[in-house]
Every structure is written in C-alpha cells, then in structure tokens.
Amino acid sequence: MSDILEVKDLVVSYGKIKAVKGISFTVGEGEVVSLIGTNGAGKTTTLRTISGLLRPTSGSIRFRGQDLTKVAPHDIVSLGLAHSPEGRRIFPKLSVEENLMLGAFSRKDKGIRADLDAAFELFPILQERRAQPAGTFSGGEQQMLAMGRAMMSKPQLLMLDEPSMGLSPLMMKRIMTTVTTLQEQGTTILLVEQNAQAALKRATKGYVLEVGTIVLSGTGSELLASDDVRKAYLGED
Ligand SMILES: Nc1ncnc2c1ncn2[C@@H]1O[C@H](COP(=O)(O)OP(=O)(O)OP(=O)(O)O)[C@@H](O)[C@H]1O
Ligand SMILES: [Mg+2]
C-alpha cells in the first residue's frame, strides 16, 4: 500500500510550549488510520498543522510526496486534503446547502452538482433540510453537515476531528458507519477520536498519542487487544 500522507518528526509549538513533540506516522492509500489520545494529547494540533492552519516548528508533512509545510491552507484543500474540524464549525446563519457549497470553494470543475447529490445520498436529511439555517441543526445533524461539507472538496484524504463528540450512541454509530462507507467509496481517512473503541474497530492502523508523543501503534485490532489501551482508553481494570 503506497502512503498518501507521511508525517515525519513533526514538532508543533504554541509559543514556548511544545504541543506535538516529534511524531511520525503514515497513512496509506485507502486506509482508515485512527489517532487516539486523551484531552490535550495534541490530536487537533496535528490535524491543524497538516491542514496548514498551524506551521510546524520542525519536521515534514508529505502528501503524495509533496511537502505541505509551506503550502497555503486553501491550496492544501485543492491538492485533495479535507478537514472536518473539531466542534464542526458550520456557519449557523447560512443554509445547509450554502454550508455544503462552501466545501467546494476551491473547485472550478463541473462535478460539483454531482457531489452535492452524493452528499445528499450519504445523509438524506441534508437534502430534506437544505434550505434550513444550519444553526438550527442538532449536534448529530451538524456533524453530518460538517462531513458532507468536507466531502464537497472531493478529497483523496479526509481528516475527521472527533466526529463522535457529544453524540448519542445511535448517532455515533451512524457517523462511524459513514466512515466505512466513505472508505469503501475510495476516500482515505485520518480519524481523530477520544472514543478509542469506535475508532480502532474501523481502523486499518492506529496510533496512540500521549502529551505530544506517539506511545503505541499497531493495527486497529492489535491496539484494541492491548492491555495498555484497554486500561487507559477503554476504562477497563
Ligand atoms: N491556541 C493554543 N494556544 C496555546 N496552547 C494551545 C493552543 N491550542 C492547544 N494548545 C495546547 O496544546 C496541547 C494540545 O492541544 P490539542 O487541542 O491539540 O489536543 P487534543 O488532543 O486535540 O485534545 P482534545 O481531545 O481535548 O481535543 C494542549 O496542552 C493545549 O492546551
Ligand atoms: Mg482536539
């Protein structure tokens, strides 16, 4: 499996504080790679740096071989990398459809209409409520919208930051099933989650991040079976 994303010795700091302390990981074409870790581990910082919203202190980020560390965020989207951010960040006053169309801002091709239909097919409620202000959506609906919006840039790699956060078990399942659907449709996924069970179950590969350092890695099932993961992340004795 060829790597679509290669992060090497990445260090990211906020002022003098290092939030990410030299991590390396890879995402292969077609994989679902899960990055798990507790609050403050550096998961969001890592995704924001890959997206170009933060600049690393040192280290490299390669997407299909191209270094991203000096590329502007909107150009990174154009290269085929989309980010569904922590907290969803939808635009509450804009309609559902307008929010979706914002995901296609970098595109000029004729496939946008078809991808809007694909997003509606993925989450039919987005079509039913397409004219509704997005701010009136529930948390789970906003998550679907955030994922649909990210898909509107037609990404090769989709990064999801805690999509299950604050959702009911049923809605969480719906979102996680969609992750598998998107993978089956050919999108590679980098999934950040505190919910280790849900994230590792679907992962081809996983990394455990603790205060800015990767402490464990393996296949999803290896990590789920690991005593350290079970104790620290699955609440087992
Ligand atoms: N804008 C910022 N300024 C200063 N420190 C920050 C900033 N954003 C994050 N940090 C710090 O960087 C560290 C990593 O934060 P980050 O948000 O990446 O963690 P996380 O793994 O996403 O956590 P969570 O699961 O709570 O979302 C934390 O110690 C956090 O306090
Ligand atoms: Mg976070």
From TrEMBL:
Name the UniProt record assigns to this protein: ABC transporter ATP-binding protein
Domain annotation ABC transporter: ranges: 5-236
SUPFAM superfamilies in the cross-refs: P-loop containing nucleoside triphosphate hydrolases
Superkingdom field: Bacteria
Keyword Mitochondrion in annotation: no
Key word Nucleotide-binding present: yes
Signal peptide: none
Single annotated GO MF: ATP binding
Keywords from the UniProt entry: Amino-acid transport, ATP-binding, Nucleotide-binding, Transport
Family membership: Belongs to the ABC transporter superfamily.
Highest classification ranks of the organism: Bacteria, Bacillati, Actinomycetota, Actinomycetes, Micrococcales
